[in-house]
Amino acid sequence: MNIALWIVQILLALLFMFSGVSKFLMPADEMAQNMPPFLSLSFIYFIGVCEVLGGIGLVVPWLTKIRPGLTPLAAFLLFVIMIGATVITAMGQAALAIIPAVVGSLCAFVAWGRRAKA
What we know:
The chain has helices spanning 2-25, 28-33, 41-64, 70-92, 98-115. By secondary structure, the protein is mostly helical. The longest helix has 24 residues, at 2-25. The radius of gyration is 15 Å and the shape is globular.
């Protein structure tokens, strides 16, 4: 179980780090084309910061044994973000909503798996 959790944590951390950093590297007008009009650019940047910090929080606290309780907290908060991503994606293209739903489920798995030992 520990190996499965580590694999999922590392893959999710890479995914969220890539997603968060890409929100800052992509030009604003190009990013706005793919987003619903009711989401402001500052909110997208806020989500990007949350994704980068969450990606770090999925691995570093548990790896260093410094405040390991932050790992399940980061996983839970990323799960909350993915609930919002699933809803927003479903409003546009319902078939694509499965992707954030699966990522959110993996975040819930990490939060559940790491909560007992934290």
